[in-house]
Amino acid sequence: MLTNRDPRTAIGVRYDGKVLLITVDGRQPGYSLGLSSRELAGYLVSLGVKDAAMLDGGASTQMVIENETVNRLPARERMLGGGIVVIVSKDLAN
């Protein structure tokens, strides 16, 4: 449900053209309760995002950077059917 506070994943484009990938942990009392869809939208707006899409969330919420999971999963890692992969060309990294 969109009104529940759950783990969330979103992608957004700021007014300056930068693309943000956001992962919010949740369902972990004492660590993170997650966000509702309205709370996530407010957070994205506070970051200067003008266009955004909420992606799959809940137990599918996982962010991996350089082969390392950087968020705290609410349960064991699970197989996912899809994802967004960002590859930065070394020529463009500088």
Question: Could you list some keywords that capture this structure?
Answer:
94 residues, three-stranded antiparallel beta sheet, 1 helix, globular, Phosphodiester glycosidase domain-containing protein, NAGPA
Strand fraction equals 15-25%
Count of structural domains: 1
Strand order of the largest sheet: 2-1-3
Count the E strands.
5
* SSE sequence, one letter per element: EEHEEE
The secondary-structure class comes to alpha+beta
Radius of gyration: 14 Å
Pfam families: NAGPA
Protein name: Phosphodiester glycosidase domain-containing protein
Domain Phosphodiester glycosidase: 4-86
Furnish the topology, listing elements before pairings.
Elements: E1 8-14, E2 19-24, H1 37-46, E3 49-54, E4 64-65, E5 68-69
InterPro entries: NAGPA (IPR018711)
Organism: Acetivibrio straminisolvens JCM 21531
Domain Phosphodiester glycosidase: 4-86
Molecular structure report:
The protein has one helix and five strands, in the order E-E-H-E-E-E. With about 90 residues, it is α+β, with helices and mostly antiparallel strands. It has one domain (about 1-94). The N and C termini lie far apart (about 40 Å).
